Amino acid sequence: MPELEKEFPTLEGITKIVFDFEKVEYISSAGLRFVLKCKKSVEDTKVTNCSPEVFEIFSVTGFSEMMTVEKALRKISVDGCEKIGEGFYGIIYRIDPETIVKVYKIPDALEMIKRETDLARKAFVMGVPTAIPFDIVKVGDPYGAVFELLNAESIVKLIDSEEALDDFAKKCATILREMHNTKVKEGELPSRKKETIEELKACRKFFAQEKFDKLLALLESIPETDTLLHSDFHVKNIMAQNNELLLIDMESLSVGHPIFEFASMYASYEAFSCVDKQNTDKFFGMPLEVTTKLFNKIFRYYYNDKTEEELSDMERKLSVISFLQVLVLRSKYAELAYGAEKEEIEYCVKYLTEMSGELDTLAFG
After folding, report:
1. What is the CATH number of the domain that holds 46?
2. C or N: which end of the chain has fewer Cβ atoms within 10 Å?
3. Which range, 150-154, 169-173, 234-238, 240-244, is most confident?
4. What is the number of structural domains in the chain?
């Protein structure tokens, strides 16, 4: 500890201190006093990667009540484990009959994982049929989230006939109705409408001022509601357990009008294939004609009191949000876009420009 104190002759000008205790096996009273000195001088001081023994010392001495003290993450391996799913951000493996782990592809995903597991707990408390997160781990260098998921199977593997597709669509419509009947307290979850408006503003450069203003007005026309939304509802985020469906990937959980839910689904099942017709095959392992049929079935089972004319009008409206989602994702890499990605950007801009002249509102339902 004297050596460490020499590294901090003064704390003047320091605004944040993070002690990484990954290699610390024991901390003495002198070490505790030094950490306390740092905490008193720099409010934003925390200790991470504590072994169970060191964490216990911080706990019994009361340090964990005064400051952030984090245990070291458990380390696991997925070598030889069955890969049961893959999404944009992570790969899901079964690590034993009772649990799965979602291994994140992106580095420094810890804050994202903490947010997702927190949202998953909120969803569970609200009554959403979701896998229960109970641990954050290290899987080599990447981070992972461990979920309890007994005997669960991938939906893609189970949709092997027209009858299975129809049954799945009915169950999805039922879950969506249950979710959308759940009311969210103000401020508890982000507003999907506000997020979508910010996404449009990020794509401002692609549109003439008149068209941008019209698209903004269309988004503003959607009523703000307190409805619970999953916002990323597709087959890769749904597992089957004992003939019941469970939702995973809660990182997009939000609040808003159901149009945003169906727009997200339409984007996944159709809009992202606007140029590359093999996209759903690559992402879901399902051809475009099947994902299109699946969306249509879920949409119609959900809105079973609407006429085909009404449903067609509603689909045109939600497609505006869907193609904006495609544009948002592709435009993040606009400078590097080439081939299909560049064509997708051009397609979306053209589609949104045309629709802005055809629609006066996006309100429906």
Report:
1. 3.30.750.24
2. N
3. 169-173
4. 3
